Amino acid sequence: MFAATACGGGGTGKDGGDDGKAPAGAGASTVKDDAPQAVVRVAPSDGATSVATTGALRVRVERGTLTAVTVRDAKGARVAGRLSADGTSWQPSGHLAASTRYAVHATAKDARGRVSAKDTTFTTLTPKNTFIGYYTPEDKSTVGVGMPVSLSFTRGITEPEAVEKAVTVTTDPAVPVEGHWFGNDRLDFRPEHYWKPGTKVTVRLDLDGVQGRPGVYGTQAKTVSFTVGRSQVSTVDAAKHTMKVVRDGKQIRQIPVSAGGPGHTTWQGEMVISEKDPVTRMDSQTVGLGGEYDIPDVPHAMRLTQSGTFIHGNYWAATSVFGSQNTSHGCVGLHDRRGGGHNGTPASWFYDNSLIGDVVVVKNSHDRTVAPDNGLNGWNMSWADWKK
């Protein structure tokens, strides 16, 4: 009776009862069935160094779908990425920064919903050769309606698409903005028409890690913003020797001028004020005109072209010249007094009432239209040509 009682708690095999022991091999089968089948793979390998900033990072899964992929740098900034339509792979949306350690966390699930995870780290390459982009206008400046965003790179760019993709220009209110390359070292951005007054423009330079040419990488990660001020467009009629200043659609002044004389006519077209100098030296040798002039103290000078066209004060010509004759070597001159300053002359007034980025249009000068890359003068290109 004792023995029977001791052995009777689970029933007998004949009754189908459980004797408390798993069938041979059952334990191993249960563990195997519960293990997730999805396998997450991350490239580059865990701990890798000198990793390329473009094309090296990939996350994929075998026998499952990815549920989340998070890539962050050491400061916690997240890398944007995109998941494939079938959920089996992920890659970053853009390039990575150079000399940066990244941490990857990826999860996936198999057909039965069981979850797998993978955590890795890697460090990107440190470039030996780098480039930056010098930008205009300055951060937090207020500019005229003709001011483009202009970037001049310190190295010639042979991968323009990668570099342009890394520059983002946004506006408030929103307006389409397009980039245009002048050669291989300058990239300008502008809207189809002049900016609307009051527009706020933000330029994000995400160039750190961008390969601009073989073995040469960008180093900038910077955001620049500026505001568009009132609208001012001044039209110089070289034949009539006048300049009409129009602000916010209304003419506020007409100023007598002296434009370029015979043999030195002023460029025609739309030009943007790119620099303002209270006093500057103008030496004809710097613009290929030999020793024709060297004036050490030209007042109220505002640059219109890189080749040397200015609109500026002129104290050495008789007052009667302005409004009646074109006598300059290509610049637009306004009556002024030596020494400049706030002296009440037309040149002083125009200087004080102008912003970098204001537009000066020259017509009837019988010269060619200024080249779009001669200064900040891309407005002389059609929108269709600009977008090419």
TrEMBL record:
Q: Per its UniProt record, what InterPro entries does this chain match?
A: Big_10, LD-transpeptidase, LD_TPept_cat_dom, Transpep_catalytic_dom
Q: Where is this region: Disordered?
A: 1-33
Residues of the signal peptide: none
Q: What keywords are annotated for this sequence in UniProt?
A: Acyltransferase, Cell shape, Cell wall biogenesis/degradation, Peptidoglycan synthesis, Transferase
List residues of the L,D-TPase catalytic domain.
Answer: 232-363
Keyword Transferase carried by entry: yes
Which residues does the entry assign to the active site, renumbered to this chain? H312, C331
**Which PROSITE patterns does the protein's record reference?**
LD_TPASE
Q: In which pathway does it act?
A: Cell wall biogenesis; peptidoglycan biosynthesis
Q: Which PANTHER family match?
A: L,D-TRANSPEPTIDASE, L,D-TRANSPEPTIDASE YCIB-RELATED
What's this protein's name?
Ig-like domain-containing protein
